[in-house]
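Tutorial sheet, problem 5. The three components below are modelled jointly, 1076 residues in total.
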Amino acid sequence: MTSLVVLLTLPLVAALAVLALPERRREPLGLLTVAIGLVAALTLAASVWRSGPVLLTLGGWTPPLGIALRADGLAVALILMSALVMSAVALAARFEMRATRVGPRAAFGFWVLMALLWGALNAVYVSRDLFNLYVGIELLSLAAVALVALSGTAKALAAALRYMIFALVGSVLYLAGVVLTYAAHGVLDIGLLAARMPAESDALALGLMTAGLLAKTALFPFHVWLPTAHAAAPAPASALLSALVPKASFLILIRLWFEAMPDLASSAAVMMLAVLGSIAVIWGGVLALVQSRLKLIVAYSTVAQLGYLFLIFPLAGGGGSVQPWSAGAWTGAMFLALSHGLAKAAMFLAAGICIAAVGSDRLGDLRGLVRHLPMTVAALALAAITLAGLPPSGGFTAKYLLMTSALAAGQWPLALVLVGGGLLAAAYLYRPMAALFAREARIAPRPVPRIWQAVPLTLAASAILLGLFSATPFDLLQIGRPEPAEEGL
Amino acid sequence: MSAALPVLILLTSLVPAGVTFFLAQDSHSLRNGLNLGGAILKLGLIGWMLFSVAGGASYEAILPLAPGLVMLLRVDALALLFISLSATLWFLTTIYAIAYFGTKAELSRFFGFFSLCVAATTGLALSGSLISFFIFFELLTLSTWPLVAHKQDKPSLSAARLYLVYALPGSAALLWAIIWLESATGPVLFTDPPDLSVLEPGALRAIFALFIIGVGVKAAIVPLHGWLPAAMAAPAPVSALLHAVAVVKAGAFGVVRIIYDVFGAANVVALGVGVPLAVLASATIIWGSLRALQQDEIKKRLAFSTVSQVSYIVLGAALASPLAMIGGLVHLIHQGLMKITLFFCAGIYDERAGVRTIAGLNGLGPRMPWTSACFSLGALGMIGLPPLAGFVSKFYLGLGGLDAGAPWVLGVLVASTLLNAAYFLPLLYRLWFLPAAEDATGDERAPALVGPAVVTALATLGVGLLAASPISPLGWATLIVTREYGP
Amino acid sequence: MSLTVFALTGAALVGLGVYGLLALPHLLRRVIAFNLTGSGLFLFFGAAGARGGAVDPVPQALIITGIVVALSASALAVGLVVALARSSGKVVLPDEDPAP
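Model answer (structure tokens):
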């Protein structure tokens, strides 16, 4: 329980402390924070693994009076993944976000925003109260928007503002849903809502909240802000934005649909979400295929990968109890969220290294980098394997679980999306790989420290390990899993 | 011990691969020692297992992943057949490659991926479940790409791209087939054939077709063979690997596993999918030979010859008769030995004499006698001249065709033999009987290049002469068929 | 009766705000539209807390929190708008610029 409190408060305290401390103390403090946070995340995971979900009622008040926090298997898996990504980003930022490279303002702002973002993420992962989730996701959005604007160029500012407009519309819609829910039931706790008497306004409330969260998760057709915003930020910030931020709003969607109001899921509604997800997979992939900059390719790939997550709504359950091996779609989507987080962060950090070496991320300028940056290219390759869902990676485990459910439930068009999306991912990720692997270099690269290069490689390798040793994370995700995840919506 | 052994045998290739990546470019002796050491250790382990498996033992190691994903490594007689081939040829190819590359650049990357390829092949051979087969199949695809692209020039990169353009959709088809089957029957283990009656015959035929498309890309079955001749842009040791040690063999091995351990020969016959596959294999045999006739480059001609020869294995499996199966399995070994001899020699001609085209072979025989003798043995074996290796395979395939009630197979074999002679004999004629060009150069003062070729050429002769002994490939193939797939 | 008035006013404010947020190109107007929407929602929320005579304190606490959140969002948005205006001389997003 202490570790949960540490995870929630430490980042916020660190954000304030960075403001107060002199410049030379900033980096050590940031690194100390992620180190403590990583230990706390591991401790929390161990405790959940041993004795089930950890519950925390703030101030000892139980809902509906107080606010409940609960770390179940899913929350703790996301906390752990975020802590890993945060550590990697902090290590990379030591090199990349130096005042001499990015200017004193961005160097200063980055550590504050990163800590705020982390605190908000952890809060969203464990909150059980719809309004508390609103506050968390707002803090997250604001920190994310500010990260996009970090470089201060007109382009980055415009991208940040566009993101902000979507985020604001999203929060307004979500808040409207929360207000309707409260007006109808007088409670906002997820557990209590699950046991509510159904009201007429429930469908509208869920619809509003879902629409708002879709805008924040950048599901097609709300994805237009994402690629420019993610590509405009400095690479470590992009890593956080792409790998972690959309997962928070997706998690709230899962909490709403699978835990708070599973009774409202009509087959038309879940199918619509899956159709939007499928379009996102294909459309994001096609757009990634025509980009000529590495960061934009990676950003469009996020649009596509987020689409996969929405296949969970019709697929959860799969063959159900008749075919127990095929009931893994819910866990499959969570595997995808985890492995995508690790791989995508690795990719953006690797892109940052490429930019540091040749000063550009145009594919033509990256030619021949394999000779100078073999570790970075290896990181990109391993991350690409995960994103394309090739074995033996976490992405493959996810795809296998989702596809088995899809075919067992007779939803073969969705299985086709999974396979087609994987091939598309292989195609758009092949272009940067081929450029990096070419013989002739166009630009003589500057040297990049090996320790920096090792950071994305470690992240990408952990995405592969997630697939090779998938039994433990699989069991972890089952702890506190909601019933509809097994039975289907 | 029995659980550790399959893992250990996988590690003999995997550990050298992992370590080699991190070695400095100029630490030649460490790298060579590591790779050769791994290969020797592996050969030792395999030799020991050959005896115990012949005595009826089997070894299993299981790594449970998420539910439904069963990672099972299992040593059975069929797996041993394949890994003893790949391990022997890995050892020889490593010697050859060390001599071939000398002190060229990027060797740590090359040998790292080379060993990784062999590790993937080993894992694929040892796989005891469909999903572990798929995992190693994909690992093989991915680890081959950097080898094909090794020269990093335009032709290599486009060949490597073409490889993935064929291989990745192929593996998507394979994955679809696996999951379609498993979503109905549950996880498929090779020791425990799935209950196919839960699926409609139509669905089963579609699944079978998807399986064949999936592994057919690697086995270079026409029309999925386009990548193989293009991959000739890669260095000679890579060609040896693609054609004999790992890649096309993995495809052919997959066909055998799917027919005998997933569907079962009886079901293949009942579903009526064996004959179409046999016809497709026959078409590939003829088409590959016809295309080989038209090639002027030695390596291209050999590549089309592989397209043709690998389908002998597919044909043997598709006929679903014990004798044909023996012919197919023994050809897995025989084709590997003969084809690697030919590629070793083609590489030597290229490296030591600068000869790449067939016209350049004129009069090279007396100048490079050892190489040319090996090349001739390999070529004659391919044609099927008794008592060389190829004859044994063709003999059993012919018997199997008669046994399976498909006498037309004899016609295919005869036609193919004539075509083989038509595209190989002119080469031998040029080597030995035509005068050399005025400015011809070439020598074979490279024992580490010629040595492996001599060993494999002698093996081509040996496996034919000693075919009757129980430890020969033929003896082992017979053991597999009578013990595990016998009536 | 008064509840309906609150609800209708709230709904009208939300409607106006969402329209402004989506349709107006001028960024400052959008920020104001966002605040309008927020006010409408809070009005409705406060009214919802007055059910059945006794006043429910929870919505009031939540509204105050919501106002703080909206304020910080507005502050950040205005800051970004000012920065954009300084660096590009425009107060509209580049691809929505009616006169590029």
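Marking note: Chain A has a mean pLDDT of 91. Full credit if you identified this.
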